[in-house]
Amino acid sequence: MSKFKKKAEVKQEIPTSSMPDVVFMLLFFFMVTTQLRKTSIEVKQQIPRAGQLRKLERKTLVTNLYIGEPTKAVYGKEPKIQANDVFIDTNDIIRWVNEEKSKLAEFERDQLTISLKVDKDTKRGIIADVETELRKGNARKILYTALDNADPKKN
Amino acid sequence: MARATPEIPNASMADIAFLLLTFFLVTTTINNDRGLSIGLPPPPDPNQDVEVKMQEKNIFKIQVNSTDALLIEGEPMEDVSGLKDMIKKFVTNKGVDPASSESPEKAIVSFKTDRGTSHKRFVEILDIVQGAYYDIYAEQAGVTNKEFREAASALADPEKKAIYERGKKDIPMNISIAEPTKVGN
């Protein structure tokens, strides 16, 4: 019988000694890519979808403006504009644009891009008002943030 | 005498690392700063009378009302799937059809909304209009639409810039987003 005895037991174990290294590598990747959000967004943000998206060239030249219905009932139902951490009125936009511009180096101030993150149920009226103010403030590069159509997740 | 070698127990290291990893996985929001890029016109000059005469045939009119219904060149349209081809045909007409645009430089796509139009609809239509232009550019540059858009976002690279300029040659993206009307809101 001993003739048929298996010569050796094949070990079927995955080597785990390098697991911590692998995990650490993943950990560092996520640590580096993570951007903890400084501002909490207080308006509804269901970003619409589109197909013809463009990436932004330089992230330092971008500032965000969030528009949508406030998430907290205290602020009412009307869509509001949030810049950085506060709600602003359309009249304040020019001042806000100038503040944002002053943060940039002089030669790239005209390249400031405003990324409009607008909830999809927001009406055009308020957005058009914002655009008019941005034109007056001479911040004319606009990006309507949108999600990719081809990307099935989210929303 | 055997000396006890001081060692940090590392059996639980993987667990700790996993815990941290899970934390970062959950909190990560990979910034997607992508969207439809447009340039706004300069602010209106009050001293100047902006009475610009355009020939009717050089304007492709898109109107959206407060209920998000669409009017293309005065005709109601339910299904937007054919709109992109209509715009492409209009822009690249080059005077073939006397009722359509004379040249791509003169062709203007006018997009008028109402104050009550939803942003979702606005983005949907703007996407189609820009898509039509990008298709034309991509064809002229001999690349795919996606490649062209990528080139347009990386103008620092001279090779990409060449593609971009080749595509855009003689065809400006004349999309006029008019001040909305005031029915809704």
Report what the structure shows:
Chain A is an alpha/beta fold and 155 residues long. Chain A contains three helices and eight strands, in the order H-E-E-E-E-E-H-E-H-E-E. In chain A, the strands form two sheets. A five-stranded mixed beta sheet of chain A has the order 5-4-3-6-7, covered by helices on one side. Chain A has a two-stranded parallel sheet with strand order 1-8. In chain A, a hairpin with a 2-residue loop joins strand 4 and strand 5 (86-88). The mean pLDDT of chain A is 81. Chain B is elongated. In chain B, a hairpin with a 5-residue loop joins strand 2 (59-64) and strand 3. In chain B, helix 3 (119-141) packs across helix 4 (145-152) and helix 4 (145-152) crosses helix 5 (158-168). Chain B starts with 12 loop residues before the first helix and ends with a strand. Helices cover 36% and strands 17% of the residues of chain B. Chain B has five helices and six strands; from the N terminus they run αββββαβαααβ. Chain B has 185 residues and is an alpha/beta fold. At the A-B interface, helix 1, strand 1, strand 2, strand 6 and helix 3 of A face helix 1, strand 1, helix 3, helix 4 and strand 6 of B.
